[in-house]
Design goal:
Structural class: alpha/beta
CATH architecture of the largest domain: 3-Layer(aba) Sandwich
Number of domains: 2
Largest sheet: 5 strands, parallel
Radius of gyration: 21 Å
Strand order of the largest sheet: 2-1-3-4-5
Strand content: 5-15%
CATH topology of the largest domain: Rossmann fold
Number of helices: 14
Length: 369
């Protein structure tokens, strides 16, 4: 396994080029570009913050979890409630005091386009992030302010690998409105720190000294359950998504303390699956003391059930820096897993197949009895 992770030429051949590697390496630049550009929209001049009662972020997949990352990271600093909407329908309470942030990398996500139509009907305050497509056309033709992404740091073209554009972009919009209380200089400093930190994760660093490559080897051929809590909750969601699409591998994420109220009893059966599981505990010294205790005891319970566990301690000193650190770990981890599984992350054949079949299905088929 180690050999393939350290053979750059073979990896480039497997991936059909360096686009994926370059996109993963460029996460700090995606964040910085999108944050500064979305902040420059000065959304508060168009939508007065005092009028906004609620924020709804609508998105799917790689355009959805960035909103979750922001919501969970700044949970204790948000001045207005944020709701993540991930289906076709907006809730009844949406009205002219609601800010809708429509999130779709391609601009063609049908659920988001459905939300857009409803948001307009409900006279909500509308903005969005996209590289164009039908969503870009909708926002432009209706004269709604929005962040048109120029994805120069995402040559892969994949939303989950260019998700820095959405984390930085949404953050810029919310900082502009004063909904997230964080200094611009603090955020930019964290982006700069991330740029330094990921040097140790890059593909040029051989497995012997690359802890993310070692982690990928430990997870390879197993079903990872990523365990997170508090400010890292949204990133757990992101890593599971990236493992699914980038590595074409099953993965799940679970949150402490919620999992302590049911999942531990579910580890007993079926016995056959135990050999296929690995619980990856992403631990932070910034978790509350009660949650830290729960992490330690939860790992003990998982071990008692004879399920493999891995423990990863975040090194950064602030919550923002830890979130960025784990975002990078997830991106490189899914990249290395894709290599071990000999998969090309650029292609998503089953997602493409599904969308094609959905488009072709003009009427509901006969439902199986």
């Amino acid at each position: 396994m180690t050999k393939i992770l350290d053979e750059l030429r073979k990896i480039i051949k497997l991936h059909g080029g360096e686009e994926i590697i370059n996109s993963v390496n460029s996460l700090p630049y995606q964040l910085k570009q999108s944050f500064e550009e979305s902040l420059a929209l000065n959304l508060s001049k168009i939508y007065p913050a005092k009028k906004i009662k609620t924020i709804v972020i609508g998105g799917m997949g790689g355009s959805r979890f960035p909103g979750v990352i922001i919501k969970e990271l700044f949970k204790e600093k948000l001045t207005k409630p944020i709701i993540i909407n991930d289906d076709y329908h907006l809730t009844e309470f949406v009205n002219d005091n609601t800010l809708i942030i429509l999130s779709s990398y391609s601009g063609t996500t049908e659920e988001v386009l459905a939300m857009a139509t409803q948001a307009k009907e409900k006279k909500a305050m509308i903005t969005g992030l996209t590289i164009g497509g039908k969503l870009g056309q909708f926002l432009r033709e209706n004269h709604f302010p929005y962040y048109l992404i120029n994805p120069r740091y995402n040559p892969s073209g994949q939303p989950r690998i260019g998700f820095g554009y959405f984390v930085g972009g949404i953050l810029g919009l919310l900082v502009s409105l004063g909904i997230v209380k964080e200094e611009k200089k603090t955020i930019l400093k964290s982006f700069d720190e991330l740029e330094k930190k990921i040097e140790d994760y890059k593909i040029e660093k051989v497995t012997k000294v690359n802890k993310i490559k070692k982690l990928a080897e430990e997870i390879f051929q197993l079903l990872p359950i990523y365990v997170v809590a508090e400010h890292l909750t949204g990133v757990g969601n992101a890593i599971a998504n990236q493992t699914n699409e980038t590595a074409k591998s099953m993965a799940e994420f679970r949150v402490i303390p919620e999992l302590n109220h049911h999942l531990m009893e579910g580890l007993k059966f079926p016995k056959k699956i135990k050999q296929s599981l690995v619980f990856v505990f992403f631990f932070s010294s910034l978790y509350s003391s009660q949650v830290q205790k729960r992490f330690i005891i939860t790992q003990e319970v998982v071990k008692k059930n004879r399920v493999k566990t891995l423990w990863v301690t975040l090194e950064s000193k602030t919550k923002l820096d830890q979130v960025l650190e784990l975002m990078a770990i997830g991106s490189f981890l899914s990249l290395y897993l894709s290599i071990l599984y000999h998969q090309d992350p650029k292609i998503i054949p089953y997602v493409d197949y599904f969308k094609k079949k959905l488009d072709e299905m003009k009427e509901l088929p006969k439902i199986p009895s």
